[in-house]
Design brief:
The chain has about 240 residues and is of the alpha+beta class. Helices cover about 20% and strands about 30% of the residues. The chain has one domain: q2cbj1_9rhob like domain (Jelly Rolls, Sandwich).
Protein backbone atom coordinates (compact mmCIF):
# COMPACT_ATOMS: atom_id res chain seq x y z
CA UNK A 1 0.00 0.00 0.00
CA UNK A 2 1.48 3.33 -1.07
CA UNK A 3 2.48 5.74 1.65
CA UNK A 4 2.21 8.71 -0.72
CA UNK A 5 -0.84 10.99 -0.57
CA UNK A 6 -1.57 12.80 -3.82
CA UNK A 7 -3.38 16.11 -3.38
CA UNK A 8 -6.83 16.42 -4.97
CA UNK A 9 -7.13 18.58 -8.11
CA UNK A 10 -9.44 21.13 -6.52
CA UNK A 11 -12.11 22.83 -8.61
CA UNK A 12 -13.17 26.45 -7.94
CA UNK A 13 -16.81 26.42 -6.78
CA UNK A 14 -17.96 28.54 -9.71
CA UNK A 15 -16.51 25.96 -12.14
CA UNK A 16 -18.21 22.82 -10.77
CA UNK A 17 -20.81 22.56 -13.54
CA UNK A 18 -18.19 23.10 -16.24
CA UNK A 19 -15.81 20.53 -14.72
CA UNK A 20 -18.56 17.92 -14.52
CA UNK A 21 -19.44 18.45 -18.17
CA UNK A 22 -15.86 18.55 -19.44
CA UNK A 23 -14.03 16.13 -17.13
CA UNK A 24 -16.79 14.00 -15.64
CA UNK A 25 -15.87 14.95 -12.08
CA UNK A 26 -15.10 17.90 -9.80
CA UNK A 27 -13.41 18.11 -6.39
CA UNK A 28 -14.14 20.90 -3.93
CA UNK A 29 -11.79 21.82 -1.09
CA UNK A 30 -13.40 22.21 2.34
CA UNK A 31 -13.52 25.98 1.89
CA UNK A 32 -14.81 25.45 -1.63
CA UNK A 33 -17.57 23.21 -0.30
CA UNK A 34 -18.67 25.87 2.14
CA UNK A 35 -18.57 28.54 -0.55
CA UNK A 36 -20.48 26.30 -2.97
CA UNK A 37 -23.18 25.77 -0.36
CA UNK A 38 -23.17 29.40 0.72
CA UNK A 39 -23.03 28.30 4.37
CA UNK A 40 -20.32 28.31 7.05
CA UNK A 41 -18.20 25.17 7.12
CA UNK A 42 -18.96 24.98 10.86
CA UNK A 43 -22.52 23.93 9.94
CA UNK A 44 -21.13 20.81 8.25
CA UNK A 45 -18.62 20.22 11.04
CA UNK A 46 -21.49 20.09 13.53
CA UNK A 47 -22.69 16.87 11.84
CA UNK A 48 -19.45 14.95 12.41
CA UNK A 49 -20.49 13.39 15.78
CA UNK A 50 -23.44 11.77 13.97
CA UNK A 51 -20.95 9.23 12.55
CA UNK A 52 -19.95 7.99 16.02
CA UNK A 53 -22.97 5.70 16.44
CA UNK A 54 -23.70 4.02 13.13
CA UNK A 55 -25.01 0.43 13.30
CA UNK A 56 -23.05 -2.43 11.66
CA UNK A 57 -23.55 -3.25 7.99
CA UNK A 58 -24.96 -6.78 8.20
CA UNK A 59 -24.80 -7.45 4.45
CA UNK A 60 -21.06 -7.59 3.70
CA UNK A 61 -20.49 -10.69 1.56
CA UNK A 62 -16.73 -10.72 2.09
CA UNK A 63 -17.29 -11.67 5.73
CA UNK A 64 -15.84 -8.41 7.08
CA UNK A 65 -17.06 -6.40 10.07
CA UNK A 66 -15.33 -3.17 9.12
CA UNK A 67 -18.31 -1.09 7.93
CA UNK A 68 -21.10 0.70 9.78
CA UNK A 69 -23.73 2.82 8.04
CA UNK A 70 -27.10 4.56 7.88
CA UNK A 71 -29.30 5.31 4.87
CA UNK A 72 -32.09 7.71 3.88
CA UNK A 73 -33.98 8.70 0.73
CA UNK A 74 -35.32 12.03 -0.53
CA UNK A 75 -36.97 13.57 -3.56
CA UNK A 76 -35.89 17.01 -4.77
CA UNK A 77 -38.17 18.85 -7.20
CA UNK A 78 -37.36 22.47 -7.83
CA UNK A 79 -36.84 24.08 -4.44
CA UNK A 80 -38.88 21.40 -2.67
CA UNK A 81 -37.12 18.61 -0.78
CA UNK A 82 -39.14 15.74 0.71
CA UNK A 83 -37.89 12.78 2.70
CA UNK A 84 -39.22 9.53 1.24
CA UNK A 85 -40.45 6.64 3.39
CA UNK A 86 -37.59 4.43 4.53
CA UNK A 87 -36.79 1.79 1.92
CA UNK A 88 -34.26 -0.88 1.10
CA UNK A 89 -31.14 0.03 -0.82
CA UNK A 90 -30.98 -2.00 -4.03
CA UNK A 91 -28.56 -2.15 -6.95
CA UNK A 92 -28.47 -4.47 -9.97
CA UNK A 93 -25.56 -6.88 -10.25
CA UNK A 94 -24.44 -4.98 -13.35
CA UNK A 95 -23.37 -2.12 -11.08
CA UNK A 96 -22.49 -4.02 -7.91
CA UNK A 97 -21.33 -7.56 -8.61
CA UNK A 98 -20.72 -8.22 -4.91
CA UNK A 99 -23.89 -6.87 -3.29
CA UNK A 100 -26.21 -6.31 -6.23
CA UNK A 101 -29.56 -8.06 -6.63
CA UNK A 102 -30.41 -8.00 -2.93
CA UNK A 103 -32.54 -5.72 -0.78
CA UNK A 104 -30.39 -4.23 1.95
CA UNK A 105 -32.33 -2.66 4.79
CA UNK A 106 -29.91 -0.32 6.55
CA UNK A 107 -30.74 1.63 9.68
CA UNK A 108 -32.35 4.99 8.85
CA UNK A 109 -30.46 8.23 9.24
CA UNK A 110 -31.37 10.05 12.43
CA UNK A 111 -33.82 12.96 12.48
CA UNK A 112 -31.21 15.19 14.12
CA UNK A 113 -29.01 14.77 11.03
CA UNK A 114 -31.53 15.23 8.24
CA UNK A 115 -33.35 18.13 9.90
CA UNK A 116 -30.31 20.43 9.81
CA UNK A 117 -30.55 23.41 7.43
CA UNK A 118 -27.12 22.56 6.01
CA UNK A 119 -28.37 19.08 5.14
CA UNK A 120 -31.24 20.50 3.11
CA UNK A 121 -28.90 22.96 1.42
CA UNK A 122 -26.44 20.21 0.50
CA UNK A 123 -29.10 18.05 -1.13
CA UNK A 124 -30.60 21.02 -2.98
CA UNK A 125 -27.19 22.01 -4.39
CA UNK A 126 -26.53 18.44 -5.51
CA UNK A 127 -29.92 18.31 -7.22
CA UNK A 128 -29.02 21.57 -8.97
CA UNK A 129 -25.73 20.04 -10.12
CA UNK A 130 -27.61 17.01 -11.46
CA UNK A 131 -30.02 19.30 -13.31
CA UNK A 132 -27.08 21.16 -14.84
CA UNK A 133 -25.90 17.80 -16.26
CA UNK A 134 -29.19 16.23 -17.32
CA UNK A 135 -31.75 19.04 -17.36
CA UNK A 136 -34.22 20.16 -14.66
CA UNK A 137 -36.41 17.33 -13.35
CA UNK A 138 -37.24 15.59 -10.07
CA UNK A 139 -34.24 13.90 -8.48
CA UNK A 140 -34.41 10.74 -6.41
CA UNK A 141 -31.70 11.01 -3.79
CA UNK A 142 -30.15 8.31 -1.62
CA UNK A 143 -27.81 9.25 1.21
CA UNK A 144 -25.41 6.92 3.02
CA UNK A 145 -23.35 7.58 6.14
CA UNK A 146 -20.32 5.25 6.25
CA UNK A 147 -17.61 4.50 8.77
CA UNK A 148 -14.86 2.09 7.65
CA UNK A 149 -12.58 0.96 10.48
CA UNK A 150 -9.36 -1.01 10.76
CA UNK A 151 -10.18 -2.96 13.94
CA UNK A 152 -9.63 -6.21 12.00
CA UNK A 153 -6.48 -4.88 10.33
CA UNK A 154 -7.94 -3.69 7.04
CA UNK A 155 -11.10 -1.88 5.92
CA UNK A 156 -12.50 -1.67 2.42
CA UNK A 157 -14.40 1.49 1.47
CA UNK A 158 -15.45 -0.08 -1.86
CA UNK A 159 -15.32 -3.87 -1.52
CA UNK A 160 -17.05 -4.17 -4.90
CA UNK A 161 -14.03 -2.54 -6.60
CA UNK A 162 -14.11 0.16 -9.27
CA UNK A 163 -17.74 0.71 -10.20
CA UNK A 164 -20.63 2.88 -11.25
CA UNK A 165 -23.68 3.24 -9.04
CA UNK A 166 -26.34 3.25 -11.75
CA UNK A 167 -27.37 6.85 -11.06
CA UNK A 168 -26.76 10.25 -12.65
CA UNK A 169 -24.66 12.08 -10.04
CA UNK A 170 -22.56 10.73 -7.18
CA UNK A 171 -21.17 12.89 -4.38
CA UNK A 172 -18.58 11.61 -1.90
CA UNK A 173 -17.66 13.82 1.05
CA UNK A 174 -14.85 13.01 3.45
CA UNK A 175 -16.24 13.58 6.93
CA UNK A 176 -13.08 12.59 8.79
CA UNK A 177 -10.21 10.11 9.02
CA UNK A 178 -8.10 9.09 11.98
CA UNK A 179 -5.11 6.79 12.45
CA UNK A 180 -5.10 5.27 8.97
CA UNK A 181 -3.12 5.05 5.77
CA UNK A 182 -4.57 4.34 2.36
CA UNK A 183 -8.06 5.33 1.31
CA UNK A 184 -6.92 6.73 -2.01
CA UNK A 185 -9.69 7.88 -4.35
CA UNK A 186 -9.48 6.80 -7.99
CA UNK A 187 -11.58 8.07 -10.88
CA UNK A 188 -11.40 6.47 -14.33
CA UNK A 189 -12.73 7.32 -17.78
CA UNK A 190 -11.55 4.77 -20.31
CA UNK A 191 -7.75 4.69 -20.08
CA UNK A 192 -7.59 8.09 -18.37
CA UNK A 193 -7.40 8.05 -14.59
CA UNK A 194 -6.97 10.40 -11.64
CA UNK A 195 -5.78 9.41 -8.17
CA UNK A 196 -5.71 11.47 -5.00
CA UNK A 197 -6.34 11.21 -1.28
CA UNK A 198 -9.02 13.20 0.48
CA UNK A 199 -7.50 14.08 3.85
CA UNK A 200 -9.35 17.25 4.90
CA UNK A 201 -12.88 16.97 6.31
CA UNK A 202 -15.57 18.15 3.89
CA UNK A 203 -13.54 17.72 0.78
CA UNK A 204 -16.31 16.93 -1.71
CA UNK A 205 -16.04 14.82 -4.89
CA UNK A 206 -18.80 15.01 -7.52
CA UNK A 207 -19.00 12.43 -10.32
CA UNK A 208 -20.98 12.06 -13.53
CA UNK A 209 -21.83 8.40 -12.89
CA UNK A 210 -22.72 7.66 -16.51
CA UNK A 211 -19.28 8.78 -17.64
CA UNK A 212 -16.71 7.72 -15.03
CA UNK A 213 -16.12 4.85 -12.62
CA UNK A 214 -14.65 5.26 -9.15
CA UNK A 215 -13.24 3.42 -6.17
CA UNK A 216 -11.44 4.00 -2.88
CA UNK A 217 -8.50 1.79 -1.93
CA UNK A 218 -8.40 -0.20 1.33
CA UNK A 219 -7.28 1.41 4.58
CA UNK A 220 -4.89 0.04 7.21
CA UNK A 221 -3.84 1.27 10.66
CA UNK A 222 -1.19 3.97 10.47
CA UNK A 223 0.42 2.66 13.65
CA UNK A 224 0.52 -1.03 14.51
CA UNK A 225 -1.87 -1.91 17.32
CA UNK A 226 -3.91 1.28 16.97
CA UNK A 227 -7.11 0.94 14.94
CA UNK A 228 -8.35 3.87 12.91
CA UNK A 229 -11.33 4.84 10.80
CA UNK A 230 -12.53 6.77 7.75
CA UNK A 231 -15.93 8.48 7.70
CA UNK A 232 -17.66 9.46 4.47
CA UNK A 233 -21.02 10.69 3.26
CA UNK A 234 -22.16 9.35 -0.12
CA UNK A 235 -25.15 10.91 -1.86
CA UNK A 236 -26.56 9.88 -5.23
CA UNK A 237 -29.06 11.62 -7.51
CA UNK A 238 -31.03 9.57 -10.02
CA UNK A 239 -33.67 10.52 -12.57
CA UNK A 240 -36.87 8.51 -13.14
CA UNK A 241 -37.12 7.04 -9.64
CA UNK A 242 -35.21 5.06 -7.05
CA UNK A 243 -33.50 1.85 -8.08
CA UNK A 244 -35.57 -1.20 -7.17
CA UNK A 245 -35.82 -4.90 -7.86
Amino acid sequence: MSGTDYSPPFTPPEEVATALRQEGYAVLSPKGTGDWLGMPLAELEAMRPDWDHLPPDEYLKDGGRYRTRRHACFVAEGEALTQAPHRAHWQPVEYNALHGGMQRWFAPMEDATVSRPVWHRLLQRLAEAASALRGPQPWYIEAHQFRIDTAEGIGRPTPEGAHRDGVDLVAVALVGREGIKGGETRVFEGRRGERFTMTEPWTLLLLDDARVIHESTPIQPRDEGHAGWRDTLVITCRAQGFQGA
